[in-house]
Automatic annotation (TrEMBL):
The keyword Chloroplast does not apply. One of its GO terms (molecular function) is ATP binding. Residues 2-253 form the ABC transporter domain. It comes from the Bacteria. It comes from Pseudoflavonifractor hominis. It is found in: Cell membrane. This is ABC transporter ATP-binding protein. SMART domains: AAA (SM00382). Keywords: ATP-binding, Cell membrane, Membrane, Nucleotide-binding, Transport. It is a peripheral membrane protein. InterPro entries: AAA+_ATPase, ABC_Ni/Peptide_Import, ABC_transporter-like_ATP-bd, ABC_transporter-like_CS, Oligopep_ABC_C, P-loop_NTPase. The keyword DNA damage does not apply. Belongs to the ABC transporter superfamily.
Length: 334
């Protein structure tokens, strides 16, 4: 369904070029959920905005390609992009407070979103579909809610309205940018269940951007771990959790509380601070914070090493392991 190849996004600021996304590649098939995880500022959202054509100035796609069902998304004109959004690709934004219009009722905004992409639908049918979607995302008393304004909703309920708006046109691809951040745990579980249910019925593909590795384990089929604009590890969800290949992924997992842990087990934070994207390091971006850092890590970006089917990591430790394995195999054969 979606193929992203060597995508590069930069922001041209007075201080210089900020390389927000530095050459990432992945594929997404129908009915698949891919999690994109990483710290704030790792380029997760900017990569998503590039797909849907919503990069804010001074941001620019400076290289690479995005193909959706074989079509070049970056070559779309304004009308094609408008048609593409909503009917084929929809996005649930991170902040519902700024994404809902304060002067229109919630019902009006849902109906407008539907009618913009389905010109033949009547107003009565659009209102009926909007009420069904609000019920699906756990909002009760929907007839009253349709007539209310965003300020009359709590933060979590506004988030649910945004999710309903993203799903109302039944898109082929849904980009969810931290959609469960403002929700409590029970509502979060309901929303994840709803997404999984809709995805099974419609074979919708989902890109799920999150900090929450618990959500990733719950909903995703595969994961891309991003750090400083680069994908440092990619693989199926089980590989990422149980056969971790990159020290950064290990750090993320160690800093997450576990239900099965001993009661007094301490969480281990990742030492140091994220890199300055105006002056990224020459080598591996994680090297200054990595406990396994070697001289070569500071000098040269590591290549991807295949760790299994569909599982790869960009780390000099894994390169060493691969060379050691090849030497041992050579010694056995020799």
């Amino acid at each position: 369904m979606l193929e992203v190849k060597d995508l590069r996004v930069s922001f041209f600021t007075p201080a210089g070029e900020v390389k927000a996304v530095g050459g990432i590649s992945y594929e997404l098939n129908y009915g698949e959920v891919m999690g994109i995880v990483g710290e704030s500022g790792s380029g997760k959202s900017q990569e998503a905005y590039s797909i849907i054509g919503l990069l804010q100035s001074p941001g620019k796609v400076v290289g690479g390609s995005i193909h959706f069902e074989g079509r070049d998304v970056l070559a779309f004109n304004k009308d094609q992009m408008t048609q593409f959004r909503g009917s084929e690709v929809a996005m649930i934004f991170q902040n519902p407070m700024t994404c809902l219009n304060p002067v229109y009722t919630v019902g009006n905004q849902l109906v407008e979103a539907l009618k913009a992409h389905d010109k033949k639908i009547s107003k009565a049918d659009a209102e009926k579909r909007a009420m069904e979607m609000l019920e699906l995302v756990g909002i009760n008393n929907v007839e009253k809610r349709m007539k209310q304004y965003p300020h009359e909703f709590s933060g979590g309920m506004r988030q649910r309205v945004m999710i309903a708006m993203g799903l109302i046109c039944h898109p082929k691809l849904l980009i969810a940018d931290e959609p469960t951040t403002a929700l409590d745990v029970t509502i979060q579980a309901q929303i994840l269940e709803l997404m999984k249910d809709l995805q099974k019925k419609t074979q919708m593909g989902i890109i799920f951007i999150t900090h929450n590795l618990g959500v990733v384990a719950e909903i995703c089929d595969k994961v891309s771990v991003m750090y400083a604009g680069k994908i440092v590890e990619q693989g199926k969800v089980d590989d990422i959790f149980y056969r971790t290949g990159h020290p950064y992924t290990m750090g993320l997992l160690r800093s997450m509380p576990r239900v099965d842990a001993e009661s007094h087990e301490r969480l281990i934070p990742i030492e140091g601070t994220p890199v300055d994207m105006l002056n990224p390091p020459e080598g591996c971006p994680f090297a200054p914070r990595c406990e396994h850092c070697m001289k070569i890590c500071l000098q040269k970006m590591p290549p991807y090493v295949e760790l299994g089917e569909g599982h790869r990591a960009a780390c000099w430790l894994r390169v060493q392991d691969e060379l050691k394995k090849q030497r041992e195999e050579g010694a056995q054969n020799g």
